Amino acid sequence: MNRGFYTIMAAQFLSSLADNALLIAAIALLTSLGAPDWQTPLLKLFFVVSYVLLAAWVGIFADSMPKGRVMFLTNALKAVGCLLMLFGGHPLLAYAIVGIGAAAYSPAKYGILTELLPAEKLVVANGWIEGLTVGSIILGVVLGGVLIRPEVAEPILSIFHLNAIGLASFAEGAIFAITFVYIAAALVNLAIPDTGARYPKQKFDPYDSIKGFLRSCSLLWHDRLGQISLSVTTLFWGAGAVLQFLVLKWCEHALGMNLSEGAIMQAVVSLGIAVGAVLAAARVPLKSSLKVLPMGICMGVLVTFMAFFTRDWAPAGGLSLFGFSLSWATLIAAAGMIAVGICAGYFVVPMNALLQHRGHVLMSAGRSIAVQNFNENLSILVMLGVYALLIKADLSVPMTMLLFGAFVMVSMALVIVKHLRNQKEFDSTHLIGEEKRH
């Protein structure tokens, strides 16, 4: 890997770190404002709606200039969203502004990999990016949990005299600090090299843009490899968004944890994803990427098993590690969540790499990632909407988690059946490694 790749990694780490810390801080801000519980999953929904509504244009935008410049502008927009959240904007609407920045950032972040690296390095590159992203998720949720703690937030509020400008809550102190992480990410983006890739100029005209975007969607969904990898990543990101909130509720129900402690359990899941991503990068070449599909079923089985776990299942007592006392229930729950994460990371990294490869072969880098983002985030919107309705209907946490695990199992089984039917017609794996068509 060259220096440009490592610069991209550093920028991605900081941006993702801030995204995940901000989610925890925004949840705390909603709580401090007395918002109802069902608004919490809507934070993520407002964040990802831009991926769907702007999908026809963000790919064009990403291909319209060097991608490092795109990443700089979008991180700057995220910082603006933080400031709006601090100075009077509703948390949901302000988080939607951050989501616009993220929607435009993503095609540039992943698209530049296909410009910078050959196809055979995409699984390894995705393993590094996914592992680093998951590392930033771990640190981000922990950072968010730490920043909202009184002993950390109070010094931030007093040192910067934030009370003088009307900022008084612990959540607002945390968001103020997170704004500077976005600014740091934007500055690192300026060091990303120009790959020299240039694409034909495309119009932002609504009719032509939507027509071209729908054509790109059709290309990927009708491609025998694209449809399988796109199905898996669409399912994964929708399920992952729900799991992000479901883990917080499950920790409260099963282990009696508060928001700050539940954020650490979120980080434990992410640790498992990082391990799975690294294992996939080391063990799964692009040619063998489709062999990881059964791991998705394993993930669903593990989530179903954990649905009814409570601290009553575990013996009394625990261990003391690095000065922290951890109960056996917490340790068993953490082990189960790490296993869930390993399964998720192991199957999604090769699928991401395969999807990026097929998108690059069939169309431009930016447009292919925009199609991927549209489908994945439409899944997030639908699944979070269903999850919010389940909360509003007072469905129990164990039953919600059971339904979630069963859905993942059945969906992955259907994807595997579709792939086997495709293979019976003709072997499509020879398309892996194909050169760009145009």
UniProtKB/TrEMBL annotation:
It comes from the Bacteria. The chain crosses the membrane at residues 44-62, 83-105, 160-185, 228-251, 263-286, 292-309, 321-349, 369-390, 402-420. Gene3D superfamilies: MFS general substrate transporter like domains (1.20.1250.20). It is found in: Cell membrane. Its main location: membrane. GO terms for molecular function: transmembrane transporter activity. The keyword Cell membrane applies. GO terms for cellular component: plasma membrane. It is a multi-pass membrane protein. Keywords: Cell membrane, Membrane, Transmembrane, Transmembrane helix, Transport. PANTHER family: MACROLIDE-EFFLUX PROTEIN, MAJOR FACILITATOR SUPERFAMILY (MFS) PROFILE DOMAIN-CONTAINING PROTEIN. This is Lysophospholipid transporter LplT. The lineage of its organism: Bacteria, Pseudomonadati, Pseudomonadota, Betaproteobacteria, Burkholderiales. The gene is lplT.
